[in-house]
Please model this.
Amino acid sequence: MSAEMRRLLIVEDDLGLQRQLRWAYEGYAITAVGDRAAALAALRAEEPQVVTLDLGLPPDPDGTSEGFATLEAMLALKPDTKIIVASGHGARESALKAIAMGAFDFYAKPIDIDTLGLIVARAFHVHALEAENRRLAARIEGETALGGMLTAAPEMLKVTRTIERVAPADVSVLLLGASGTGKELLARGLHDASPRAQGSFVAINCAAIPETLLESELFGHEKGAFTGAIKTTAGKIEAAQGGTLFLDEIGDVPLPLQVKLLRFLQERVIERIGGRKPIPVDTRIVCATHQDLDAMVADGRFREDLYYRLAEIVVRIPSLAERPGDAGLLARHFLRRYARQMNAAVTGFAPDALAAIDAWGWPGNVRELENRVKRAVIMADAKQVTAADLDLDHGEAEPINLKAIREEADRRAIRHALARAQGNISGTARLLGISRPTLYDLMKAYDLQP
Ligand SMILES: Nc1ncnc2c1ncn2[C@@H]1O[C@H](COP(=O)(O)OP(=O)(O)OP(=O)(O)O)[C@@H](O)[C@H]1O
Model:
């Protein structure tokens, strides 16, 4: 709890005791009040993590009714507050009642300062643990999606939700995105979320295999089918029987092989090279490419009929630069991972590194980020990884000017709304959720015409 100030609220109507308690603690920001109204006001204003509450408050200083009412109101206002109640001697019953109502603990009067100090310290500790738990739970929910994919960007969360939705249906999926954006990770996530999860996930990068070998890789070959075919070998398609076949860089498959792939997709049987008997294969196809397949279809480099077989669902994956905030998030994740594996002395990023990570355009996307962080963790000779360790220390980071960014966003939204409302000012204001005068002011400021 070092980052957050520890705030303690003392609710006690006996001013002498109040003063005594004030001086009993060290390291807390203390507020002391004497009645219910002041206690609730302090709870709202200060948000103390821990409260000590005397049950005997005015107008019922000798009973407990006002104390219980205060306890109830405080818990209703901020249920995570740790409230420790003081019960007069012999008042075990009221102490138990307070606990049943949600108090954290109780102490008996007359006060033993040391004992109370321990109870208060423990209450802060428990509060901090609970807060940390909530924070972690929220993080896990918000940031990891679909098979270990890490993201907090709405653009990417939309992609993972789409994939989760199409996973159960046996449709072919085409993933479009630049290199290193996580296409294979998503394909694997799709497989894991599909009814074929028990089958195997077989990936093949069509660009990484020479054209002459690609056919044999995909379809397999019989012994003696060509020079060097010393034994019968099953291809990747067969290996994906009952599972998912991920064809990465599908745009790199040469035309003659596209014909063979199409035939497989139509008939769901393959023939190994040099083989004569058709082998039925039941597999789901997921493909990916960084190329513009539409353009390739248009100029005849990719078969249109194959495209429609492969692209029953098309999912576009945003580049890392299009997911604001994700670069920093992923960088911290990779730093933790590689520090654990390779250089435990490294504990985090220096401020200049974080600024550089945010400003860099990441042409190689997540793969580039992972590689830079990995190398930096190995190279770093201090506890903190610097921009220089990441090899990102050239030039000034582009300044972030919130005003300019907001203006640009305002202009864009107003132009869109004007177009949709066909220049009608009332309609435009309604679409934007602002008043007509506000819209006029903005249009004047930005020099926009209806
Ligand atoms: N959102 C993410 N969270 C965690 N790790 C990620 C994420 N995106 C990508 N990665 C990791 O980055 C690396 C590259 O991802 P992947 O291989 O899936 O990209 P790709 O788009 O298939 O790349 P290519 O087209 O170059 O094959 C992998 O190590 C992957 O685990």
In short: The first strand starts at residue 7 and ends at 11. The chain is about 50% helix and 15% strand. The pocket of adenosine-5'-triphosphate is lined by residues 149-151, 177, 179-185, 248, 290, 330, 366-367, 370 (CB under 6 Å).
